[in-house]
Design a protein that fits this description.
CATH topology: TIM Barrel
Low-confidence stretches: none
Number of strands: 10
Largest sheet: 7 strands, mixed
Helix content: 25-40%
Radius of gyration: 18 Å
Bound molecules: iron/sulfur cluster
Order of helices and strands: EHEHEHEHEHEHHHEEHEHE
CATH architecture: Alpha-Beta Barrel
Strand order of the largest sheet: 3-1-2-4-5-6-7
Number of helices: 10
Length: 310
């Protein structure tokens, strides 16, 4: 299982790095598992967070390294500590037994896929049967996703860009629009659409929910991304439309140093409605505080998300 770290092609970057020997590719991580936080998280969509939270595991490093990342402390600065699989399993088991988390939520785990599969397998063998959620950027290979078929119950991918030039400028991956579309198609083939909508289950147990974060100054990218998703998957595709962008640090891209404007978000939302998406979670801008975001993390804190303190 861990042999994939020896000539790594776990993500579409296909660096070929020998991470077992300490090599690092674009994700910046060797084969040593490093984790920035494990906690019950309340900032996901209602059928994911529920009332008792989602058991999130935040991995250090990232295969995309978007210049505007809200989690830049872990994605770009690689904050985190080495951790064994046994410790992660123990911590998640604790959260399951003591807090009753609704699911296990691996956040941006693609560069640690072998560890992720190992953790999920050990949890199952120890009787933790809550759904396993793969929460990712959308920039995944179909081969990696095939390895997850047995393990994952829910996929929560982003579909960030329809504009290849923008993908190149902000995340250095011109191939993102096509790669992510293939990835979402594979996820839907495996799990179908999120069952919260089809079955009426309050807490999701299986399926795919696609997220799209609207970026300041990039309305056309969002409009085209939604059109692409609609054209490919139709009106039943569950969609989470997000407005929470926050300039977490100074970025050499003028428009990304401000928050999203209401008119920008509602142009995108109106387009989603006009297309006819039937199942949407919408992060309306009125719901967001003017000057603070409780789910903007600080990984220097023991509990990085203030919104999780309850
Ligand atoms: S997971 Fe990391 S090392 Fe492996 S191909 Fe992707 S960026 Fe390169």
């Amino acid at each position: 299982m861990y042999a994939s770290y020896q000539a790594c092609t776990l993500c579409p970057r296909a660096c070929g790095s020998n991470r077992t020997a300490g090599g690092r590719g674009v994700c910046g991580e060797s084969a040593e598992l490093r984790i920035a936080a494990i906690e019950a998280h309340f900032g996901e969509e209602p059928p994911i967070s529920g009332s008792r939270g989602s058991g999130t595991v935040f991995f250090s490093g990232c295969t995309l390294n978007c210049i505007y990342c809200q989690n830049y402390q872990i994605s770009c600065f690689h904050m985190g500590t080495p951790m064994t699989v046994a410790v992660v399993v123990e911590r998640l088991e604790e959260l399951s037994v003591q807090q009753g988390i609704h699911n296990v939520n691996f956040v941006t785990p693609d560069h640690f896929l072998p560890h992720t599969i190992d953790i999920a397998g050990q949890l199952r063998r120890r009787g933790v049967t809550i759904p396993v959620l793969y929460n990712c950027s959308g920039y995944e290979t179909v081969e990696s996703l095939e390895r997850l078929e047995e393990m994952a119950d829910i996929y929560l991918p982003d579909y960030k860009y329809s504009d290849a030039d923008l993908a190149q400028t902000l995340s250095r991956c011109r191939d993102y629009p096509a790669v992510a579309l293939d990835a979402v198609a594979e996820m839907v083939r495996q799990k179908g659409f999120l069952d919260h909508f089809s079955s009426g289950r309050e807490i999701a147990g299986r399926g795919v929910l696609v997220r799209h974060l609207v970026l300041p100054g990039q309305v056309q990218n969002s409009i085209d991304a939604l059109s692409t998703l609609y054209g490919e998957f139709g009106a039943e595709l569950p969609l989470s439309l997000m407005s929470q962008y926050w300039p977490a640090r100074f970025i050499k891209h003028a428009e990304l140093n401000r928050r999203l404007r209401r008119e920008e978000f509602y142009r995108v939302y109106d387009h989603a409605l006009a297309l006819g998406f039937k199942h949407m979670f919408v992060q309306h801008m009125d719901a967001l505080a003017e000057n603070e975001d409780p789910f903007l993390p600080d990984f220097n804190q023991e509990r990085p998300f203030r919104g999780n303190l309850r």
